[in-house]
UniProtKB/TrEMBL annotation:
One of its GO terms (molecular function) is sigma factor activity. This is RNA polymerase sigma factor (Sigma-70 family). One of its GO terms (biological process) is DNA-templated transcription initiation. InterPro entries: DUF6596, RNA_pol_sigma-70_dom, RNA_pol_sigma70_r2, RNA_pol_sigma70_r4_t2, RNA_pol_sigma_r2, RNA_pol_sigma_r3/r4-like, WH-like_DNA-bd_sf. Residues 121-170 form the RNA polymerase sigma factor 70 region 4 type domain. It comes from Dokdonella fugitiva. Residues 188-288 form the DUF6596 domain. NCBIfam families: sigma70-ECF. Residues 18-79 form the RNA polymerase sigma-70 region domain.
Length: 422
């Protein structure tokens, strides 16, 4: 295989396997920073060896075995403290010398639990919210530092510092690599759910780059959500989050055109929606509802997604119910973004003028000043009202704010259509 092909294959494998690799290594070395370094060392070794030796039959197992050997070598060189030497070195050296462990089995063993432990460790209260999100997206989501920076509209150096400090903080605090129990588990659940959904969203609608979606991230987030379901079956919001992700993921095949262009919800071919994923989502939503009590923000969003999923064609969508659900969601988690989404539902239920009034009331919201969907939604309402020149300006502004190339092209296309109609 040519070197370029090998490098592309290594990159693809790394995208998929790095979170699992780092999670497994963290369980062994009890240090996220060291685990990531070992994983990176294994990646460099693959780039150096595979072009000549060829791709191994099990690339993930090769990376794991290499990372384990690097752990042993580094431990011997640096003479790690006795506790870690006995805890880690004895087990790893014995495993290597006795040859009784199958590396592939070790990589797959409790991998869901390892990933979940990694999320809870990354969401430890010793870290700030910003640090938790950045660290988890880096080590679990596999996002590059610049991708995280673009997602949160902050300098890349800021994100890099957050990640480095987060690793040092966790190591200094000797945070255990485990899923907490009792009251601490409930306290940290909200942060874990937030991070899982952020990972899913980065896969569902990439904040930057040439691709509209990154399906592997959606799959990682869904796997984590399902593991969390098994761990906390009495938590309605866990089921709500899984329901939301399942229903949204069901549209994946219909969201991208033949040339990679985005296809908006109302224009999608609904026969391409994954009905099994929808059924799983509706079942998870039913479990959340069965647990009783008021629905939380994820379950409410899942209920909104379910309205779309139940409509076989766009014209059958119950927009009045969606608008009412958004009103409830706004009461639970007040947010200008929620209000913007409510405006879309109101416009569909009662006409674009009603939606435009809500959007115009959001014009002064500081959180939306650089949010590309605000002018995009406003442009859509203006176009439907026949105010094409104004709509063109809004679509052009939205295009200037987005960092996703596919989305930018779509918005400029809408601007051009408005220019032709003006």
């Amino acid at each position: 295989m040519p070197t370029d092909s090998i490098h592309r294959a290594v990159d693809a494998i790394w995208r998929i396997e790095s979170p699992k690799l780092i999670a497994s290594l963290t369980r062994m070395v009890r240090d996220i920073g060291l685990a990531e370094e070992l994983a990176q060392d294994a990646l460099v070794a693959a780039l150096e060896n595979w072009p000549d030796a060829g791709m191994p039959d099990n690339p993930a197992a090769w990376l794991m075995a290499t990372a384990k050997r690097r752990a042993i070598d580094q431990m011997r060189r640096q003479q790690l403290q006795q506790r870690k030497h006995e805890q880690l070195g004895h087990d790893l050296v014995a495993e290597q010398e006795e040859g009784h462990a199958d590396i592939a089995d070790a990589l797959d063993d409790d991998i869901g639990d390892d990933l979940l432990r990694l999320v809870f460790t990354s969401c430890h209260p010793v870290l700030s919210r910003e640090a938790r999100v950045a660290l988890t997206l880096r080590v679990l989501g596999g996002l590059a530092t610049d991708e995280i920076a673009r997602a949160f509209l902050v300098p890349e150096a800021t994100i890099a510092q957050r990640i480095v400090r987060a690793k040092k903080t966790l190591a200094a605090a000797d945070v255990p690599f485990e899923v907490p129990r009792g009251p601490e588990l409930a306290e940290r659940l909200a942060a874990v759910l937030e991070v899982i959904y952020l990972v899913f969203n980065e896969g569902y609608s990439a904040t930057a780059g040439d691709d509209w979606m990154r399906p592997a991230l959606c799959e990682d987030a869904l796997r984590l959500g399902r593991v969390l379901q098994g761990l906390m079956p009495e938590q309605a919001e866990v089921h709500g989050l899984v329901a939301l992700m399942e229903i949204q993921a069901s549209r994946s095949r219909a969201r991208i055109g033949p040339n990679g262009e985005p296809i908006l919800l109302l224009e999608q071919n609904r026969t391409l929606w994954d009905r099994l994923a929808i059924q799983r989502g509706l079942a998870a939503l039913a479990r959340a509802d069965k647990l009783g009590g008021a629905l939380g923000p994820y379950a409410l969003q899942a209920a909104i997604a379910a309205c779309h999923a139940r409509a076989r064609v766009a014209d059958e969508t119950d927009w009045a119910r969606i608008a009412s659900l958004y009103a409830v969601l706004a009461g639970v988690t007040p947010s200008p973004v929620v209000e913007l989404n409510r405006a879309v539902a109101v416009a569909m239920a009662s006409g674009p003028a009603e939606g435009l009034a809500i959007v115009d009331a959001l014009a002064g919201e500081s959180l939306l000043q650089n949010y590309h969907l605000l002018p995009s939604v406003r442009g859509d309402f203006l176009a439907k009202l026949g105010r094409h020149a104004e709509a063109r300006g809004e679509f052009e502004r939205a295009a200037s704010l987005t960092r996703n190339e596919r989305e930018r092209a779509m918005l400029l296309s809408r601007a051009a259509a408005c220019a032709a109609d003006a």
